[in-house]
Design brief:
Layout lengths: L2 H25 L9 H22 L1 E5 L13 E6 L25 E6 L2 E12 L4 E5 L2 E4 L2 E2 L2 E10 L5 E10 L4 E7 L7 E6 L4 E5 L9 H4 L2 E2 L3 E13 L4 E2 L6 E2 L2
Helix pairs in contact: 1-2
GO cellular component, one term: membrane
Protein name: Signal peptidase I
Organism: Thiohalorhabdus denitrificans
């Protein structure tokens, strides 16, 4: 069940119980003594649920990294914080935009609702914004006819969840606002885009930093602006499932 929906349901339920108890007492001309326990619980929980809902909807929301598609930037077991106001505030559940905010930029790491199933949240990096022409061939990302600047930065090895070892080349890519690392594995299995495509208005082209192991816009298309939930900005907790221990060195690490 969607956690935001659960919070809204709990908020309405506790609010209704609290209000009902208050009206009942007013009608019976009674004071505050002898209120039913359920009314007392509702009165205590209502403000707590309201604060949590407001923070998650308009300030920050936690998100867990479920896959290795954003390696080496984000690892399986990372818990990140998502900025909910950078791109404008939205009404929970309905998505109505209250403020404009700043437009998403190339290089931003975003959390969004998967276009083919909006109940599922994805995290990827924006590589092209509305109006851009994009191509991706020979491990080179081309935007508006120019290769995205990059430089080799050694090798990277990681273990897959099923136990296999993956050997990859690591590169640093650069945009106007971001410097980040991407991976290309030895078998080069990621899908290419040989013929340039233009990103439609109101949509964004996203890719995982683990370019050969990412289910992204190359396979299912662009992300509508209305699906974007926010920008990832910090790792607040990280758990290594293999070692069954925290990754202390990643706590507080900024996402670039």
């Amino acid at each position: 069940m969607n956690f935001t929906l659960l919070l809204v349901v709990l908020l309405l339920a506790t609010g209704a119980v609290w209000l009902g108890g208050w009206l009942y007492q007013r009608l019976r001309k009674r004071g505050g003594e002898g209120r039913p326990v359920v009314v007392e619980y509702a009165r205590s929980l209502f403000p707590v649920i309201l604060v949590v809902l407001l923070i998650r909807s308009f300030v920050v929301e936690p998100f867990k990294i479920p896959s290795g598609s954003m390696l080496p930037t984000l690892r399986i077991g990372d818990f990140i914080l998502v900025n909910k106001f950078e791109y404008g505030l939205r009404v929970p559940l309905v998505g109505y935009k209250l403020t404009d905010g700043s437009p998403p930029e190339r290089g931003d790491v975003i959390v969004f609702q998967f276009p083919e199933d909006r109940s599922v949240d994805y995290i990827k990096r924006i590589v092209a914004v509305p109006g851009d022409r994009l191509a991706f061939r020979d491990d080179t990302l081309m935007v508006n006819g120019k290769p995205v600047p990059r430089s080799a930065d050694g090798r990277f090895t990681y273990r897959e969840p099923r136990g296999g070892t993956v050997y990859a080349e690591r590169f640093e890519e650069r945009t106007e606002e971001h410097r980040y690392h991407v991976l290309y594995t030895e078998n080069r299995q990621g899908r290419s885009i040989n013929d340039p495509i233009q990103v439609p208005e109101g949509r964004y082209f996203v890719m995982g930093d683990n370019r050969d192991n990412s289910n992204d816009s190359r396979y299912w298309g662009t992300v509508p602006e209305r699906n974007i939930l926010g920008e990832a900005f910090m790792v607040w907790w990280s758990w290594d499932g293999r070692a069954n221990a925290p990754r202390w060195g990643r706590l507080g690490e900024w996402v670039d």
